[in-house]
Amino acid sequence: MKREAFKMYLKPGCEAEYEKRHAAIWPELKALLSKNGVSDYSIYWDKETNILFAFQKTEGDAGSQDLGNTEIVQKWWDYMADIMEVNPDNSPVSIPLPEVFHMD
Asked: How many C-beta neighbours within 10 Å does residue 39 have?
């Protein structure tokens, strides 16, 4: 199992909408993530910077940000594009963060 962290950017004033959409995450998206080895997935919000910090555990080589070739992930990206900073394909701007310390 591999641990991965990355950051994304939430547009100002979109905090409540972001939480609302994730509280009702699509079951088929959740199933796809699980099927592809993504687990223990959390996203945290830094209120001072509007940076979203994400952490997940993955089995295999792909994490949640590597599933953009699937229809359901592309639809989710389109759904979230109005409240996040995104790339031209509507994928969230996502910056991997290297692990510098871990304690079990």
From this structure: 11
Coil, helix or strand at residue 3? strand
Sign of the C-alpha dihedral, residues 61, 50, 86, 72? Answer: positive
CATH code for the domain of 78: 3.30.70.100
For the segment 5-23, the average pLDDT, to the nearest whole number, is 97
In this predicted model, what pLDDT tens digit does every residue of 45-77 receive, in sequence order?
A: 999 999 999 999 999 777 777 788 899 999 999
Confirm whether 102 is a catalytic residue.
no
- What is the amino acid identity at position 10? L
Q: Number of folded domains in the chain?
A: 1
Its domain, for residue 55, covers 1-95
- Cα(96)–Cα(13) distance, integer angstroms: 24
In order of 1, 35, 103, the CA distances from 8 in angstroms are: 23, 23, 24
Given 2, 22, 30, 79, the catalytic residue = 22
Asked if the structure places residue 104 within a domain, the reply is no
